Amino acid sequence: MKISGIGSSLPKKVVTNEMLSQILDTSDEWITERTGIKERRVLSSEYVLDLAVDAAQKALADANMDAKDLDYIICANVVNEYVTPALSCIILEKIGARCPCFDLNGACVGFIYACDIAEAYYKIGKVKNVLVVCAEAPAHMLDWHDRTCAVLFGAGAGAAVLTPGDNIIKTRFTGSPGWDRLYEMHDLQWCPYDEKGTTNLPLVMHGQDVFKFATSTCVSDLKALFEETGIKPDEIDTYFIHQANLRIIRYIQTMLRQPAEKFPTNIQKYGNTSSASLPILLDEMKREGKVHDGDMLAFSAFGAGLVSGAMLMKW
Ligand code: ACO
């Protein structure tokens, strides 16, 4: 398939490092130096759903496609305001589509998983037009008193319309033990939120372990794709790396011996938006005229699971 339309949506409310320093024992200096993040967006008057619908409508407009022509909607999401129905069902109704839809929880790898599933369905003749929406609000999983996690994440949504083409060159995924690197398993509880929407099952990250996992899996995923396809790292015009930490991105760039200009970043403005990170970045790059027909693009993401995924694509 190929990406024919792309769009993104972010909450209005900006939370700067200085603002977090007023409620947490942290500082702009620490957050900037260790992560690259300066500010992030958080939900205030919006819901995850609003961002998802807005991004979806922008992607459809960009693709010049009517929602009724969609054959499938795949929504990547870790947590939203509803347990059921799936976010994709609500998106379907709001945009006026009439097609099968489902949600997938692929953590930060959700966008690449969704593109891969769309491509597989296309190859067996089940679909022609697929809407992929990645909509996330990791703050729902955070303990805002925990400085080690609260400073890292932000909310956002990105969407893409995939149509027939042969632009997705190859994908690769891994899964490995280590869920407890991102969560501490409390006694399982039926409802993870209290009546104010505050989680009582907060995300707890073993940052250094995840850092090591992220850097090694990203480099090995991309190298494996290069080996399998014969494409060389130098032939990639732009590397889209999951925006989790600027230091992770710089490390990967060094390991692949590529110039920093090939690794665009927006983590400074949005923090880690989980699966939405890659389509938001792609949308910004496209709107700024920095992605051109025929460009070779590499995508790589890693996250809770522990899971990782990578994809090579011709634009
Ligand atoms: N402000 C000030 N100090 C802090 C903060 C903070 N926000 N957070 C931690 N510290 C302190 C720690 O307590 C520690 O103090 P100590 O030395 O007195 O014990 C010190 O800073 C160093 O802590 P480290 O954890 O060693 O810091 P590190 O340099 O590893 O950075 C970070 C932490 C940013 C989390 C990094 O490890 C990282 O980015 N890891 C990867 C995260 C990631 O990629 N996640 C993606 C998956 S997320 C998902 O899928 C949902």
Can you describe what's shown?
It is a single chain. The protein is of the alpha/beta class and 315 residues long. It folds into two domains: 165 residues, Peroxisomal Thiolase, Chain A, domain 1 (3-Layer(aba) Sandwich); 144 residues, Peroxisomal Thiolase, Chain A, domain 1 (3-Layer(aba) Sandwich), CATH 3.40.47. The protein has a five-stranded mixed sheet with strand order 1-7-6-4-5, with helices on both faces. Helix 7 packs parallel to helix 8. Acetyl coenzyme *A binds next to helix 2, helix 6 and helix 7.
Quick overview of this protein structure:
The protein has 315 residues and is α/β, with parallel strands linked by helices.
Write the layout of secondary structure elements.
Elements: E1 2-9, E2 13-16, H1 17-23, H2 28-35, E3 39-42, H3 48-63, E4 72-76, H4 87-95, E5 101-104, H5 110-123, E6 130-136, H6 147-150, E7 156-163, E8 168-175, H7 207-229, E9 238-241, H8 246-255, H9 267-270, H10 277-287, E10 296-303, E11 307-314
Parallel strand pairs: 4-5, 4-6, 9-10
Antiparallel strand pairs: 1-7, 2-3, 6-7, 8-11, 10-11
Helix pairs in contact: 3-4, 7-8
Bound molecules: acetyl coenzyme *A.
Summary tags:
Peroxisomal Thiolase, Chain A, domain 1, 315 residues, alpha/beta, five-stranded mixed beta sheet, 11 strands, four-stranded mixed beta sheet, binds acetyl coenzyme *A, 22% strand, 2 domains
